[in-house]
Design goal:
By secondary structure, the protein is mostly helical. The protein has helices at residues 6-17, 23-38, 44-128, 134-202.
Length: 203
């Protein structure tokens, strides 16, 4: 397993602790306690104890507010991260379409070369039937040289086509891994939220 970042630790702790549920109840209790404390005619010791309880409740509300702000900030960063990943995927898909189009053009070119080679082979056979003609022999030599050049071109095209296929396969694998990572992150967040719900209800 990879190293867990500080953001992931904070996010999981905040999700487990809750998202501020119960703050309204704490504030209502605090207001009632404050009103009761102001109208209290009890001993100073009781008043001080009640005062300390109000400070504790107020501290809990402040902590919950800070925690909620942290969750909000973290969600914003997550959205920015997902938007960047989505942009990268869109760019990769566009690049993949361009490479596919280029590969199709190279395939058509290879087919034309193959057809030309077949025509040249047929013509060479016809020429070989008339070896007594000097001009025909010169044309045959020229055709043989051109055929060799076309063969080299075809080999280069085949090599490029194979390389593009490999690059396209790697690109598709990368896109699938990114999509799987996004799905796993979403499932993990949903699971963490479900796990935190029973704890919040218990509070």
């Amino acid at each position: 397993m990879g190293a867990v970042t500080d953001d992931e630790v904070i996010r999981k702790r905040l999700l487990i602790d809750g998202d501020g549920a119960g703050d309204d109840r704490r504030i209502n209790v605090l207001l009632k306690s404050f009103t009761k404390w102001c109208n209290s005619s009890g001993s100073p010791e009781d008043g001080f104890t009640q005062y300390q309880r109000m400070l504790s409740t107020l501290a809990q509300c402040e902590f919950s507010m800070v925690k909620t702000l942290l969750v909000y900030d973290m969600n914003l960063r997550e959205m920015e991260n997902y938007e960047k990943i989505y942009t990268d995927i869109e760019e990769n898909i566009t690049s993949a379409h361009e490479k596919i189009s280029e590969c199709k053009k190279e395939i058509l070119r290879a087919k034309r070369i193959r057809k030309n080679r077949q025509e040249y082979d047929a013509l060479a056979k016809v020429i070989q039937q008339h070896p007594d003609r000097h001009e025909t022999l010169k044309q045959l030599e020229a055709l043989d040289k051109e055929l060799q050049q076309l063969s080299h071109i075809k080999e280069n095209v085949d090599d490029k086509l194979e390389l593009r296929k490999k690059q396209f396969h790697v690109l598709l694998s990368t896109i699938q891994e990114l999509q799987q990572t996004l799905e796993n992150d979403e499932k993990s967040e949903n699971y963490d939220i479900q796990e935190s719900s029973p704890m919040e209800n218990g509070d």
